Amino acid sequence: EAALKATLETHLEKRDGRTPSNLADSIRYSLLAPGKRIRPRLTLACAEMVDLPLEAALPAALSIEMIHCFTLIHDDLPCMDNDDMRRGRPSNHKVFGEATALLAGDALMTIALETLLDSAPHVPPEHFQRALRRFAWATGPRGVMGGQAAESLLSRNSTLPELRLMHAMKTGALFSAALLLSKDLAGILD
Known about the structure:
Blueprint: H1 2-15, H2 21-31, H3 38-49, H4 54-76, E1 85-86, E2 89-90, H5 92-96, H6 98-116, H7 125-139, H8 144-153, H9 160-186
Antiparallel strand pairs: 1-2
């Protein structure tokens, strides 16, 4: 966990320079918060299993963690779950305000994509394209964003299949990507 956190911090520092300090602080507050970093660990473990070089795997792992962090920031916002605490600390919007928290989550989406692009020079273009497609699917309306929207439709009358679909999208899609991005980057077909 400490190594992943240090790598995330280094990655943020090399990209910075023009980010307003309130936004940079908000991003760092959530992205570098204590946590298990399960998703990037899964990506790196799978990379090891398929002999994917660390230079290709590490950006993918970091990008998955950034997306997970973006979902947590947005999930805590008053317009979503309105949670005041996250991992034993005040939620991002409680520390930095709703507008900055929203922008931090949005920024993490684009930083994640920029980070994933760092894998491209280390794999053939068609392998990277498959990984990029999976990443877009997992993070978009058929993945975590769609899962958040599906959650807002749930009620006391929701069915078990509706609940399962929401979990498959909101949580499952990002875990699937964490497990399968290394396979895509390594060129292993389904």
